[in-house]
Amino acid sequence: MTRRRCKRPLTLVEVVVSMAILALSLVPFLSLANSAQLRMAKAREKWIRFHMLSQAAEYLMLQEMEDPELPGPDFFDYPGYKIMCEYKTVEDLPEDLTGLLGQAELQCCVIELVDTNTGEVVDTLYIDRINYDEINEE
User: pTM of the predicted model, to two decimals?
Assistant: First the structure.
């Protein structure tokens, strides 16, 4: 005896249930992909800001410590951003490291990346630098 299988079409309820199961299984993957894309965009923005700061730091470390010349548009060509720089004396050093004869003063170069549209500081880089100019003058 030969049995024949009857091919019956899927009902609308079966199709809707299978589509719902498919949709529910895809939601976690799509949200995961979206969050990964957002993290990548945030990491890229952070890398760009650090690249701007490091480029400015490279320029400023070649300048004199007294009133350094800020990079011009030929060197720092990033529209919407500008660099601010100031030197501060490093404080809170241990006593055995301060006041030594012939010791150069340790200063901290504070480089700030400023958004020119909002005027807020976007990122800051601190570089400790020894002021050898004071030793040479003495």
Answer: 0.68
